[in-house]
Amino acid sequence: MPVVTMPQLGESVTEGTVLRWLKQPGDPVALDEPLCEVETEKVNVELPSPFEGVMGRQFVAQGETVPVGTPLCEIVTAGTRPSEADSSETPVAAAVSARASVESPRPSPEPTAAGDRRRRYTPAVLRLARLHGIDLERIPGTGLGGRVTRKDVEAYLAARGEAPSATPSTAAVSPAPAAAYEVVPLSPTRRTIAERLSRAAREVPQAWTMVEADVTELLRLRDTIAAKLGRHLTLLPFFAQAVCRALREHPNLNARFEEGELRRFRDVNLGIAVAAPGGLVVPVLHRAQELSIEGLARALDDLIERARGGRLQLSDVQGGTITVNNTGAFGSIASRPILNAPEVAIVTLERVVRRPVVVGDDAIAVRAMVNVCLTFDHRALDGHEAGAFLATLKTLLEAPAER
Description:
The protein is α+β, with helices and mostly antiparallel strands and 403 residues long. The protein folds into three domains: 3-97, CATH 2.40.50.100; 114-190, E3-binding domain (Dihydrolipoamide Transferase, Irregular), CATH 4.10.320.10; 205-398, 2-Layer Sandwich (Chloramphenicol Acetyltransferase). It has ten helices and 19 strands. β10 (255-258) and β11 (261-264) form a beta hairpin. α8 (236-249) crosses α10 (383-398). The protein is elongated and about 80 Å long. The relative contact order is 0.11.
């Protein structure tokens, strides 16, 4: 019987959370029809069915986090013979019950005894229990069939005045009384962001550098193009285009350091760091080097809007080769971003500041100045190559062309 498993929703993603089942046992399921909502650190998506048939048993409860590859549910397909089912049942019920005796990859979600429930704890729940010395049989479960979820464990810890990330020993000697703080459970997105960025900071030798650019002419060009198009434009599409053009001369930054080798890509699949309600996400604008300013502006607006609305698709978060971040939107004038590993570079556009600067013949003029910051993987690049990329990018920003 076909079984639907937790897919790898993004590179380096190791687990996902079933937020909500959209189909229940016995419901008809069409090919590519959404079965459930799944959340990872990269994206929230509706998981489409790879089969047509009827929803069978569900093996994972709502709110549970399971590793990639874990069976989620089974789909009863058209191959079921009428003789396998009781003729008194409806066609839908018969399709579901026809193979109820077939051994499933995981136990049924309705435990019948405490022992059944114990065997069906997820890895995340068992990890928390071991860390804090918790007897899981003492925690009432709110998941499907009374199953104990990670949120149940975190709520139990909060009631004890203990932070989920603390070890039992540190919680016992904490100098702060429980009333002095509240425990904020980490969402799956925030938890995985923390794990991935911590790992990147530990494992990747990251170097940082910055240049200053005069974007006075770029602002004039931006205003001219915006007037022609009849719409507001930010500097982000212009910055994205300049990055794509600079990568033509310095392609080693459009790369990923994976399995001990530098993999350089022909297309610029531009990751865009977006502050979404659930945490930072990095959707990818594929083949960005082929787009005009207008095309970049429309594509970026669409991608950012869907990222903030939780409507990204799996393809939107895969295949990034370099990441850009418009940190200037938050008023930042300099930042040191952490690499979106295994990409080897991330570049930021900071806040544009108008100030007096020395120009030709030692004259002083008020110009629009901006800092551009670059973090790079020192295993893949040396400082001279990273500096040369920033020098080219600076030139493109200071002498823009309408393209």
